[in-house]
Amino acid sequence: MKAVTFITVSIILLFSEDYLILSNLILAVKERNPEITSMRQKVSAAKENIKIKGSWNQPKIGTEYYFSENRFMFEALQTIPFPGKTSSKIKIAKLDAAISEQMLSAKTFLIISEIKKAYYMYYLAYNKNRVINENLDLMKQYAANADALYAAGKSQQSDLLKANAEIVIMENMMYMHNAEIESSISMIRSLLDYNADKKLGIPEEINIKPVIFSNLSLDLSPVIKIKNIIMEKNLKELGLSRLEWLPDFMTGIKYDTMEDLGVMVSAEIPVYFFRQAAEVRKMKYESEMAENELLNEKNITRAKLDALVNNYKAKLKSAENSKNTVIPLREQTLKVSEAAYRAGKGSFLDLLDSADKYLKDRHDYYETVIELKFILAEIEQITGKEIE
Fold first, then answer.
1. Cα torsion angle, 346, 347, 350, 351, sign
2. pLDDT of 187-211, one tens digit each?
3. CATH code, domain carrying 183
C-alpha cells in the first residue's frame, strides 16, 4: 500500500500542474532541434554554392625574367568557359539548393513526427497510470469488503488474499508505466535540446475524430519532390556533359619592360573523345534511372498511404465502439458484480474478472487512440501536409 502512495507522489513531484501542449512542442522543436538547425545550415551552404558555380576560375598572373636580355615579362591569363557551361552549372547548383530545401522539409516533418510520437507515448503511459489509480481505489474497497465479510464469516479468506494480490499487481504495472513516462519525457527533452532538469507539464486530453482523406496528394511530399528535382538535375547534367565536347578558351596579355605588348588566345580541346562519350552515356543512364526511381517511389508511397488510411478508418471504428459501447458495458457489469458480491449472491472471482476486463478495455482504448495518432503522424510525414 505504501508503494502506491510513493508512486503517486513521485508523479505529482515530477510534473507541474500545467498542461504540456503539443502544438507548443511542435513550434519549439522547429526552432530548437539540432538536426533541423543543421539542415538549415546545409541549405545556406547550398545557396552559397550557386555563387561559386557562377564564377569563373581565378585569373593567373605571372612574371618571367630573361637573363640574356635583362628584361622582365609580365602576363595575365584568364580561362573563359564555352558559352552555356557556366549557366548550366548555375542551374545545377540551384537544383542542388532546392534538394537541400526539400531535405530540410523532410527532416522537419520527421522530427515533428518523432516528437508527436514521444508525446503520445507519454500520454498513453500517463493515462494508463491514471486508470490503474482509479481501479486501485476500487480494489482497496473490494479488499475492505472482503475483510469485513470474512470477519463476519460470510466469505473466505482467499477473497482477501486475491484482492491484495491484485493490488500488488497494479502497483507493479504502475512502476512499468512510470518507466515509460520517464522514457517519453527523455525523448521529448532530447528532441527539444532541453536539459535533464527541465520540467514538463501533464499531457492534454487527446480526442479522436473522423478525418477526411479525399484531398491527400503526393504533390507536397518532400521525398517525391526530391526525386523530381533529382530527375531534373540529371537532365541538366546530361546537357552539361554534352557541352563538355566544346572547348574552353584561355586569353591573356603579356607585357615586358621593353614595352612590347602581346595578346594570347588558346583553346582547351577535348581530344579524348572516348572519355567524353562515356561521360554523356553515364549521365543519360543516370537520368533514366532517376526517372524510374521517381515512378517507383510514387507507386510505393501511394500504396503505403492507402494502407495507412484504411488502417486508420478501421481503428477509428474500433475506438468509437470501445468508447461508446464496450467500456460503458464493462463499467455497468463491474457495478452489477460489485453489488452481487456485497449481497452475497456473486463470487469474488466474478468481481475480479469484471474489474480486470474493465481495466484492460480502458487501456486498450487508449492504445488504439495512440495508434490512430501515430498513423496520422506518418501520413503527415509522407504527404508533407499537416492534417490536424
1. positive
2. 999 999 887 777 788 899 888 888 8
3. 1.20.1600.10
